[in-house]
Design the sequence.
């Protein structure tokens, strides 16, 4: 299956954007984001904490709808999904 | 009534709005939280457009390292209070409006009084705790909250309309950790201009607001995108259980 991932702001600097991935069937959203961010340690560390959980401020969206990061382990990725991952930008 | 000088000053936008709407701008009052990177372009564009009353609040002193982006201030202002240089700059830009610059830290105790009877709050802040506080003040007063934030070449903006759109806490329930963020002045210019444009659309009733949409700007690719945002029914600030004194106390 084919899934598109868009990162924003600092996550984009570290990981790029509009990434097309072909994850295996039955993968959770949390495992999928971890898999595609592992290629860049700083990118992974920006999104996940030492325990491998999403950092609390990370915003995850699947096809335009918010997925709470605590639910991402139980949310399965489907063919054609578009996933967005972004941090709150804070400066002014 | 607009004076002859005002009619001349605003001639090119009266072509867009007409006299009545320009008068309406003159009667409006906008509260700008922060006289920094975003507050500078927002305040300048609202001042020159003839928004009649502008309140700017900031507690900082101008540092030379601010000058790559904070265009309300210049070399001669280093060491002065930002409110002093902001007031001078805005008066030079437009002597026909009323500007109040208040040297204060926005806290839970003073926020409602500082905002007063303003028609809208512009978020030109650099931290989430103060943003959450003013987001709640905007909800309580039922006035729009024009959010903007920047980092490096990236920025975001949205217009929060109480009872209609998601609020700031629906979108970003948890603050990121504080940091000394890298930033380019032009990024502040892009996002501040979007915010000023939103304020003017709101006050004039023109166009379609960035309501329910998070505008994102990637200056490295020169790409603007938007993310649809929806209310969170369980939001602590605007959810079905309205904000209470108890939950506000936790914010201080």
Sequence:
């Amino acid at each position: 299956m084919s899934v598109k991932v868009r990162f924003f702001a600092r996550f984009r600097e570290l990981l790029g954007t509009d990434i097309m991935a072909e994850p295996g069937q039955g993968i959770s959203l949390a495992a999928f984001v971890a898999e595609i961010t592992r290629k860049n340690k700083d990118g992974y560390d920006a999104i996940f904490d030492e325990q491998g959980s999403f950092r609390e401020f990370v915003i995850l969206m699947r096809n335009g709808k918010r997925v709470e990061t605590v639910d991402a382990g139980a949310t399965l990725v489907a063919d054609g999904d578009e996933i967005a991952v972004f941090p709150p930008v804070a400066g002014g | 009534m607009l004076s002859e000088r005002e009619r001349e000053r605003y001639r090119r936008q009266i072509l867009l709005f007409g006299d009545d709407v320009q008068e309406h701008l003159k009667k409006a009052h906008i509260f700008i939280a922060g006289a920094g990177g975003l507050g500078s372009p927002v305040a300048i564009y609202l001042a020159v457009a003839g928004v009649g009353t502008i309140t700017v609040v900031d507690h900082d002193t101008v540092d030379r390292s601010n000058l790559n982006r904070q265009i309300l201030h210049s070399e001669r202002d280093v060491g002065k209070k930002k409110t002093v240089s902001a007031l001078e700059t805005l008066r030079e830009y437009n002597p026909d409006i009323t500007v109040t610059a208040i040297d204060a830290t926005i806290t839970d105790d003073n926020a409602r009084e500082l905002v007063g009877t303003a028609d809208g709050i512009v978020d030109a802040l650099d931290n989430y705790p103060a943003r959450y506080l003013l987001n709640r003040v905007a909800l309580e007063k039922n006035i729009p909250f024009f959010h903007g934030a920047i980092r490096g070449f990236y920025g975001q903006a949205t217009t929060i309309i109480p009872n209609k759109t998601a609020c700031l806490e629906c979108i970003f329930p948890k603050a990121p950790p504080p940091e000394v963020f890298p930033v380019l002045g032009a990024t502040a210019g892009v996002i501040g201009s979007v915010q000023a444009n939103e304020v003017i659309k709101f006050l004039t009733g023109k166009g379609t607001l960035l309501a329910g949409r998070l505008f994102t700007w990637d200056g490295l690719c020169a790409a603007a995108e938007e993310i649809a945002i929806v209310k969170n029914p369980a939001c602590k600030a605007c959810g079905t259980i309205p904000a209470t004194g108890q939950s506000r106390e936790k914010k201080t």
Remarks:
- Confidence is low (pLDDT under 50) at residues 243-252 of chain B.
